[in-house]
Amino acid sequence: MTNNAIDILLIEDNPADVQLAREALDESKFWCNLHVIKDGESAMAFLRREGAFADAPRPDIIILDLNLPKKDGREVLREIKEDDRFKCIPVVILTMSAADEDTLNAYELGANCFITKPIGFDQFIRVVQSIENFWFTIVKLPRKEEPCNV
Q1: pTM of the model
Q2: Would you list the DSSP string of the chain?
Q3: 6-136: which CATH topology?
Q4: How far is the C-alpha of 50 from the C-alpha of 16, rounded, in Å?
Q5: Confidence class of residue 28 from pLDDT cuts 50, 70 and 90?
Q6: d(Cα 96, Cα 27) in Å, to the nearest integer?
Q7: Domain spans of the chain?
């Protein structure tokens, strides 16, 4: 791993979606470290660097599914955005839900964007690549060395 690499935390319990994200990022023009966590409790332990995650890097961006085991993605999003250490890390919601209620609730909790997962391989790859292109080409992200509560 290198300091120039982009650390992406993917919080997703569906192995097929994880594999699609890996494939999309493998074609990336950016050097990315993809960290996959499969449930909400482990996601918060990763961010807090607890237990097995003591050496976890601070992610540059979080891609979060809403429907997770152990701790729902909505709870994870709320905890991230209420914690001064993490609140400036962009959180992209990538979920099967297209419900207006879920979209509104995610934005109210502080999500930076909300994307409904497409059904098909090619469309899913394009969505992940467009997330990557937007967040790593167009947007200026905070440096990892700077705490969010500055």
Answers
A1: 0.86
A2: --TTSEEEEEE---HHHHHHHHHHHHT-SS-EEEEEE-SHHHHHHHHHT-GGGTTPPPPSEEEE-S--SSS-HHHHHHHHHHSTTTTTS-EEEEES---HHHHHHHHHTT-SEEEEPPSSHHHHHHHHHHHHHIIIIISPPPPTTS-TT-
A3: Rossmann fold (3.40.50)
A4: 27
A5: low
A6: 24
A7: 6-136
